[in-house]
Amino acid sequence: MRGTSRASLARVEERFEPVLAAAGAQASELGEQLFALVDALDSSGSLRRTLGDPSIDGEAKAGLVGRLLAAADPRVVAVVQDAVRQRWSADADLGDAIERLGFSAVLARSEHEGTLAQVEEELFRLNRALVGQREVRRTLFDPAIPGSARAGLVDAILAGRASDVTAIVARRAAAAPRGRRYVATLGHIADLIAERRQRQVATVTTATDLTAAQKDRLVGILREAYGREIQLNVILDPHVLGGLRIQVGAQVVDATVLSRLADARRRLAG
């Protein structure tokens, strides 16, 4: 999102957070309703353009939302009306914003239940299980396969070993990829969890596991660089070349960035 959209999203999120906190375990139901609206926006270009059009009066768009979502939870209606009153750099940004609000709502349930760290770990294990499973990853992203079938594949992978919140977001990521690869959506959700836990996620892919001391040193390096607490996720991949591949948000440090990688190696070695 560009600056205008980011500012609009921040305003909507700030006002929605107290609503989610008050909703408690019901917050995930609000998220499911927001996902349904995202699906409607993605399937209707005219609706998406109308609600995202900055030249149309915000109150008029809010009225349209009220009519479209007459059967929805009033809290969902209110946050969507708030969103359409904002200005968006592109009409697609509105759908992205509402999707983010939906994921945040589902995660707010986990936060209320005290299981957010568990969800984070379960999603990381799911991501790690998909390493080397190229055909499975392709299936989870394949638009020729119905979304319900992709979600069913996620159920088979999880096999009932994950929490309800993990299952909801993992199924949603498969059912509605919205142009993203499955693991990219899992990464996006992990970032949202990290924000809620006030941590920055760093994913390290390496051919051989790091020792506890190396992990501690790397966390210290990244904490100093980013000014935030770091959640370090390590993925073992024997095909990795160059020792370490470190991803923090959209930033990637790999063997092509020789000076930074060499410095990280030297500091890890002590």
Automatic annotation (TrEMBL):
Main location: membrane
GO MF, one example: proton-transporting ATP synthase activity, rotational mechanism
Membrane topology field: Peripheral membrane protein
Presence of keyword Ion transport: yes
InterPro entries assigned to the protein according to its UniProt record, in alphabetical order: ATPase_OSCP/d_CS, ATPase_OSCP/dsu
Entry's Gene Ontology cellular component terms: plasma membrane; proton-transporting ATP synthase complex
Source species, domain of life: Bacteria
Keywords assigned by UniProt, alphabetized: ATP synthesis, Cell membrane, CF(1), Hydrogen ion transport, Ion transport, Membrane, Transport
Coiled coil start-end: none
Pfam families named in the record: OSCP
Subcellular location: Cell membrane; Membrane
Family to which this protein belongs: Belongs to the ATPase delta chain family.
Role: F(1)F(0) ATP synthase produces ATP from ADP in the presence of a proton or sodium gradient. F-type ATPases consist of two structural domains, F(1) containing the extramembraneous catalytic core and F(0) containing the membrane proton channel, linked together by a central stalk and a peripheral stalk. During catalysis, ATP synthesis in the catalytic domain of F(1) is coupled via a rotary mechanism of the central stalk subunits to proton translocation. This protein is part of the stalk that links CF(0) to CF(1). It either transmits conformational changes from CF(0) to CF(1) or is implicated in proton conduction.
UniProt protein name: ATP synthase subunit delta
Organism: Cellulomonas persica
Annotated gene: atpH
